Automatic annotation (TrEMBL):
Catalytic activity: L-seryl-[protein] + ATP = O-phospho-L-seryl-[protein] + ADP + H(+); L-threonyl-[protein] + ATP = O-phospho-L-threonyl-[protein] + ADP + H(+)
GO molecular function: ATP binding; protein serine/threonine kinase activity
Binding site for ATP: 44
Protein name stated in the entry: non-specific serine/threonine protein kinase
Organismal lineage: Eukaryota, Metazoa, Ecdysozoa, Arthropoda, Hexapoda
Residue ranges of every copy of the Protein kinase domain listed in the record: 11-268
PROSITE patterns found in the cross-reference section: PROTEIN_KINASE_ATP (PS00107), PROTEIN_KINASE_DOM (PS50011), PROTEIN_KINASE_ST (PS00108)
Length: 283
């Protein structure tokens, strides 16, 4: 692996972290100083794909926040686009959730993980960025066990001209996107509700569904058009259960806003702002 040429002398590959239809992700030494992650995207149809890839790079390059994966730079080499970014050595939220079973997270861990995601999402929305694919596999965990939002492949800048588009991961996808209806940044709130449920219960609320149609039928079966969160209530209390059900509301207008989440409960608000004012933006 050390002898593999990524097309940049400052990058020395160590190992492959993952692979997918897009290409591969490498762990590399950067400038002989520290480790970085390199997402190598194989561009098969430049005319169609380059615009999408460059859009992802543009969004990442405009973001700088403790709970957003840090973008370093990008370059083109031998038919590939390579995105150099921060390396998170403790895997993903998916790994943390699996590792917490069968007992699950403590109450202190629940509020810690949730507020990490909430802080990153609040920053994105203030920058008018809709992520659209929030899920455990896209939430990376750094050396201090802080969660950082990554993978902006289908994100976009919120615009009144963009209203309909089917994209994302079915189990975390808001009903309005699933039905190709008009949507806004509240689609991320739905995904956040799915994440909170999974953090508390160890599984996605629609985990037993195997298709888009099955997920849609489950959503239609909601009592009062919102998810039953009694499993959360029995373990973590009414506050978390009611918050989760307020995010997983099928009607966009009645779904809770991010601003109201920040002030949902005094304990949550206090914890959030203590972390907020302890931010360090220096790398």
């Amino acid at each position: 692996m050390q002898n593999m040429d990524l097309g940049d002398n400052e990058l020395k590959p160590i190992k492959i972290l993952g692979a997918g239809s897009f290409g591969r992700v490498f762990l590399c030494n950067y400038r002989h100083k520290y480790k970085v992650c390199v997402k190598r995207i194989i561009v098969k149809n430049p005319k169609k794909e380059m615009k999408i890839v460059m859009h992802e790079i543009y969004i990442m390059s405009q973001l700088r926040h403790p709970h957003i994966v840090h973008y370093v730079r990008s370059f083109v080499h031998a038919g590939t686009v390579n995105i150099v970014m921060e390396y998170a050595p403790n895997g993903t939220l998916h790994d943390l959730i699996r590792g917490s079973l069968p007992n699950g997270f403590t109450a202190a861990e629940v509020i810690h993980h949730f507020c990490d995601i909430l802080m990153g999402l609040e920053y994105l929305h203030t920058r008018h960025v809709i992520h659209r694919d929030l899920k455990p596999a896209n939430l990376l965990v750094d050396s201090n066990f802080c969660i950082k939002i990554g993978d902006f492949g289908i994100s976009f800048i919120n615009s009144p001209n963009v209203t309909h588009d089917f994209a994302g991961t079915i189990l975390y996808m808001a009903p309005e996107i699933m039905r190709c209806e008009k949507f806004n940044n509240k689609c991320d709130i739905w995904s956040l509700g799915c994440l909170l449920y999974e953090i508390c219960c160890g599984r996605n609320p629609f985990a037993h569904a195997t298709s888009r149609d099955e997920v849609d039928r489950l959503i239609h079966s909601f009592t009062r058009r919102r998810l039953d969160c009694s499993a959360i209530r029995s373990k973590y209390g009414t506050m978390w259960a009611n918050l989760c059900s307020s995010m997983l509301v099928t009607d966009v207008e009645n779904r809770i806003s991010l601003e109201k989440i920040l002030h949902w409960d005094a304990s949550l608000t206090l914890y959030y702002y203590r972390k907020y004012f302890a931010y360090s933006y220096q790398k």
